[in-house]
Amino acid sequence: MFLGQFRHNLDSKFRLTIPSRYRELLGNGAYVLQGFDGNLMVYTTADFEAIAQNANQMSETSPETRLLKRLLFATAVWVEVDNSGRILLPEFLRQAVEIGNEVVLAGVNDHFEIWSPEGWAGQMAKLLDTDANAQRFAALHISTQTS
Questions:
Q1: DSSP characters over 95-132
Q2: Would the CA dihedral through 63, 65, 69, 72 be positive or negative?
């Protein structure tokens, strides 16, 4: 499970050092693709293949399906984790989400996201909205009582 937040800098070749706890989950590589909110998403090979299988079962006659497949597959790249625990972030993805030298990695359970610091600050502002959080958490039916 991908958890937590990390700030990292890209090196001069635009490689990102992956935190060791994330690296263990990725194995020798991962899929990086454009996210939905001005970010990048990083999936393990198994999880991305499951997403691909689900997408391939959708009807090609639907314009929304075709757009979704383009978003998923035209922006996806498989990246290898090198011996130093780094992945190379391709230029077209960095430009698409306006990532500079500094990034924030955010764990999101089955994947992690890569954000510009400014983009992540915007997300954090939304995450700190206590009224909205109360509604979000209500859907989980959280209880501290055990049955």
A1: HHTT--SEEEEEE-BSEEEEE-HHHHHHHHHHHT-HHH
A2: positive
- Is the pTM above the cut of 0.85? yes
Task: Give tens-digit pLDDT for 105-118.
Answer: 999 999 999 999 99
In CATH terms, the superfamily for domain 5-117 is Transcriptional regulator MraZ domain (3.40.1550.20)
Structure tokens at 54: 């689900």
Q: Report the residue count for the chain.
A: 147
Encoded tokens for 118 = 């400014």
40 neighbors 91 (Cβ within 8 angstroms)? no
Distances in Å between the Cα of 84 and the Cα atoms of 14, 21, 41, 78 are 14, 14, 21, 17
